[in-house]
Amino acid sequence: EKPRLLDDGEGGVLFFSSSYSSSSGFGFSSTEKQRQRLPVYKYRTAILYLVETHATTIIVGETGSGKTTQIPQFLKEAGWADGGRVIACTQPRRLAVQAVASRVAEEMGVKLGEEVGYTIRFEDLTNPDVTRVKFLTDGVLLREMMDDPLLTKYSVIMVDEAHERSISTDMLLGLLKKIQRRRPDLRLIISSATIEAKSMSTFFQMSKRRRALEGETFEPKVEPAILSVEGRGFNVQIFYLEEPVSDYVQSAVSTVLSIHEQEPPGDILVFLTGQDDIDAAVQLIVEEGQNDRKRSELIILPLYSGLSRAEQDLIFSPTPRGKRKVVISTNIAETSLTLEGIVYVIDSGFSKQRFYNPITDIESLIVAPISKASARQRTGRAGRIRPGKCYRLYTEEYFINEMPAEGIPEMQRSNLVTCVIQEPMISKMILASGELGCSEEIMTIAAILSIQSIWASSRGAQKELDEARLRFAAAEGDHVTFLNVYKGFLQSNKSSQWCHKNFINYQAMKKVMEVREQLRRIAQRLGIILKSCERDTTAIRKAVTAGFFANACQLEAYSHNGMYKTVRGSQEVYIHPSSVLFRVNPKWVIYHSLVSTDRQYMRNVVTIDPGWLTEIAPHFYQQRQLSHMPH
Ligand code: ADP
Ligand code: MG
C-alpha cells in the first residue's frame, strides 16, 4: 500500500498503512435478535456451568462481544438473583456504569432503578427491595465493604474491565480473594478485553481447602476456570503519520475533515484525552468546517464523564441517513463502551493518566502516551460493522520502537492514601465546619468541588465566560465564588435560562443540589450541626484549611510571574487561569487540586492567613517549614 495524503494544502496529514484484524459485527434488529447475535450468546451454557462449579471464572473476550450487558442477564435468568440475592457488576468508570445499566434495563424491559439499577458516587439509582442486577463502580463496591465486609447480599460479583488495572479494581480483587475464603457460596467473575488470564488465575487459586461449614453440601472448585470468547473479525487498515506532529488536536481535526471529504459513509471515533482537548477539537471542527458545504452532514458529539443522560443517548442512537457521526472521546470508548457504526478511528496516542511523585508528594493527572495494548484496542473499534480504517497520529517507527507494550497499573503510580482512607480531606473540612458554624456553606463548597466544573465551557466563548465568572468573583477566592454562584442559582429559582446567561452548566448545578442533599443527610446522621455563618468567610476559609492544610502555598517573594512554592515540598506551582485569583496572586493560598500541563497549576484556590496553619494543623506545621513564616 502506498502512502496516502489525507488532506490537501497546509496542515496536510500523511499516513502510511498496514493491516490489522478485529472483532465481530452485526446489523440492527430486534433487541432479542441482537442479543443472540452477540458472541457471548454461544457461550451462555458454558458460562453458567463454569460459574456454578467454580469459585472464580475468568472470561476474556473482545470489546463488544457482550460480556458486560449479557452475562449479568444470563446469571439472573439462571436464578442467581433468587431469594433476594443481588448480582453485581463493577466498572472502573462512572459513565460506563450508567450507560450499561440503562442498556440492560432496556433489554430486560424494566425501568432503570427497579430490577436493574446502578450506584456511582453521589448517585444511587437502586431500590434495595427490588434491585437484583446492580451495576456500580469498583470504588463504590469497596466502600460498601466498610458497612458489610463480606458483601453478603451479593451472590455473584463480576469484576469487569480487569485489564484496566484501575487502583480500585486491584484493591477489590485482593479483598474479594479474602472474602471468598469465608463465603463459599459467593462466585466471582473476572472479565476483560485482554488479560494475563494465567497470572490472574494463579492469583485466585485458593491455596488451602477450607474446612466445610456446617450444613454445606457443595463446594465449588478452587481452581479458577478460564473461558475465552471468540469474536469474528473485520480487517482494520492502519495508517501512520509520516512525520510526528506537535499538535495532536489540530492533527485530529484535519484528519476528521479529510475523512469526511474523501471517504465513504461511516462514523468516526476520535480518541483524545479529556474535556479540555475534546472541547477544543469540537470547536475547531465547527470553525474549520464553516465554509464546507458538506459540513452540515457532521454530527459532532463529545464523550467524557459528566455527560447528561440525553447527551449519552445521542452517542448511542443510530446515525440518521445522510449524516456522519463524529464522536470525540476520552479512553472510555477504548473498551468500556461500544459504539455501533464506527468505521474510522483516529488515535491521538495519548490519554490522561494519574501519576504520583513520592518525592514531591504531588499527584497529578498528566497527558501521557498510551501503550501498544491500548493502541490495538482503539484500532479494533473501527472494525465492528465492516472493514474499517484507523489513523494513528504518530509514526510507525514510534509505535514499534518507543510505545510501551503495556500500561503501568494505576496502583503503581498513585498516592495510596485515598485508597486506605476514603477522601479524608473533604471529610475533615466538613467536620471542622460543624465546629466553626459554617456547615451549610461548606456543604455547598464540597458539593461543587466534587463536580468537574460548574462552568459551561464547551460553547467556546472564552472571553464571555471570563466576564461571567468575574460577576461572581470573590476576593477570597474560588471557594467563596462558588457560594455566590450557588446563591444566584437559588435566587433564580434554579432556572436553566439563568445558568445559560451566566455561563453556568445547568446539569452540573442540578448535580450539585443532589450531592449537597446527600452530604447534608450524612452530616445530619453524624450529628454535625447544620448552620450557616452568614458569609463569615473567615470561618469558611478556616474550615477549608482544616481539611486541606497540606496544600498550602506561599507566593515567591520576588516572583514576577506568579510563582508559588508549596509549603511542604517547596514545589513550584502557579494559579490556574480558570481561577478568580489568576493574576491576583495573594501571598498565601490553599489549593484544592493540581493539574499538570507545561507547569503545575493550582485549581480552585482560596486565600488564607498563614497563622491558621499552625493554629489548625499544629501536628503538621509547628516545627517544620514555617519557622520563617511571618506572624
Ligand atoms: P463488552 O462488555 O463485551 O465489551 P457490551 O456488553 O458492552 O460488550 O456490548 C454488547 C453490545 O451492546 C454492543 O453491541 C454494544 O454496542 C451494545 N450496547 C451496550 N451498551 C449500549 C447502550 N447504552 N446503548 C446501545 N447499545 C449498547
Ligand atoms: Mg464491557
UniProtKB/TrEMBL annotation:
<dbReference type="InterPro" id="IPR001650">
    <property type="entry name" value="Helicase_C-like"/>
</dbReference>
<keyword id="KW-0378">Hydrolase</keyword>
<dbReference type="InterPro" id="IPR011709">
    <property type="entry name" value="DEAD-box_helicase_OB_fold"/>
</dbReference>
<keyword id="KW-0067">ATP-binding</keyword>
<dbReference type="InterPro" id="IPR027417">
    <property type="entry name" value="P-loop_NTPase"/>
</dbReference>
<dbReference type="InterPro" id="IPR049945">
    <property type="entry name" value="AAA_22"/>
</dbReference>
<dbReference type="InterPro" id="IPR007502">
    <property type="entry name" value="Helicase-assoc_dom"/>
</dbReference>
<dbReference type="Pfam" id="PF13401">
    <property type="entry name" value="AAA_22"/>
</dbReference>
<dbReference type="GO" id="GO:0004386">
    <property type="term" value="F:helicase activity"/>
</dbReference>
<dbReference type="Pfam" id="PF00271">
    <property type="entry name" value="Helicase_C"/>
</dbReference>
<dbReference type="Pfam" id="PF07717">
    <property type="entry name" value="OB_NTP_bind"/>
</dbReference>
<feature type="domain" description="Helicase ATP-binding">
    <location>
        <begin position="48"/>
        <end position="213"/>
    </location>
</feature>
<dbReference type="InterPro" id="IPR002464">
    <property type="entry name" value="DNA/RNA_helicase_DEAH_CS"/>
</dbReference>
<dbReference type="InterPro" id="IPR014001">
    <property type="entry name" value="Helicase_ATP-bd"/>
</dbReference>
<keyword id="KW-0347">Helicase</keyword>
<protein>
    <recommendedName>
        <fullName>RNA helicase</fullName>
        <ecNumber>3.6.4.13</ecNumber>
    </recommendedName>
</protein>
<dbReference type="Pfam" id="PF21010">
    <property type="entry name" value="HA2_C"/>
</dbReference>
<keyword id="KW-0547">Nucleotide-binding</keyword>
<feature type="domain" description="Helicase C-terminal">
    <location>
        <begin position="252"/>
        <end position="427"/>
    </location>
</feature>
